[in-house]
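User: Show me sequence and structure for the first protein, then do the same for the second.

Assistant: Starting with the first protein.
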Amino acid sequence: MDRTDRASRLIAAPPATVYGALLDRESLEVWLPPDGMRGRIERWDPRTGGGFRMVLTYLDPTDSPGKTSDATDVVDVGFAELVPPERVVQRAVFEAEDPSYAGTMTMTWHLTAVGEGTEVAVTATDVPPGINQAVHEAGIASSLANLASYVEEAG
């Protein structure tokens, strides 16, 4: 598993605001699920070595069966590194019987101040082969668009 998926977006909010949204339970439930999904966090421990468990539910699972069940993706995420307000490194493991979704994917969120905003670059490494690259990158881009809307409207 040496595949890397990427997406980035310029967000009209300072790095500290964006970083805060990456480590706030209620915020994550709102913006992290990509279009077509909703999310619920079952466990929350926002510190290095901590993490969270998120249940993502497809609003219409007809064309996108879930990894965990027909309608859900369940992912356990650990916080490997927290560097405010510059970087969040997560280790994600999907709950799935299909071995093509097995393994630990690392998601690195880099925040760089650009003028009055923040360039958010997401790099996913060791992406399980069962995850379609184009769909995954579109999902990350969708989450980034949701993040932008969330923090820009709050600001």
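Switching to the second protein now.
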Amino acid sequence: METTQTEEQATSAAQQDERTETPLESLSSIASVLAVGLFVMTFIFQNFEIPSGSMEKTLLIGDHVLVDRVTLAPPTKWAPFTHYRDVNRGDIIVFLKPGEPDMFLVKRAIGLPGDRIHLRNGVVYRNGVAQNEPYAAMPSSDGDPQHEYQPYRDDFPSIPPDPMYQVTASWQYELPTHIEGGDLVVPPGKVFAMGDNRPDSLDGRFWGFVPRENIVGRPLFVYWSFETPADQANKQTIADRFSFMTHILIHFFTETRWSRTFHLIR
């Protein structure tokens, strides 16, 4: 008899442990998951969509990339186990554009503090040595006026900018102070960055250096890529966005660049 009562008590206790979760407990669980997700997407990884062709062929318009926000971040004492390092020459970096704190850009780090940089007909010379950059597009006579040789852009910084170039006023004033012997000398705490699609990239040649503290991370890989018009980034109205979202839903399978899924970025 005592054994039967004990079994009944154990069964009752098990049933109480398996009781249905209350709405408040469910809400608490969801909030915990969201908090962890927001922390990861804010401080560890970040989604970023490529809006322009300045990094072609390395990155295409419509590539969605996962950005590592830890490796290039300033080291912290509370996470000594985390791998940190400084920016290396040739790194692709994501950063806040100088003077426009709400705009993220993706470019390649060309020069670090102390480096002497100049271009000759689009070829980068660093510390007097021509760089082998198979990923970089050069000026060409392919019928596109944008790709034709342009003195300021392609023989930087030996040719002063004129009004036809999209050079910021602050950089026009500052640029001469960083030129020594025909080279641009990168100052302490700054990085000189350029797009891989050199004839079609508004980069450091047009607005200056990237402060080290503006660098937020580096893209790791493409997790999804969709064929996107070059002017889509300029279409910001609700109607334009809704129209493109509808287009994605209809053409998701036919216009997704499946071959770029999990494409590593180098």
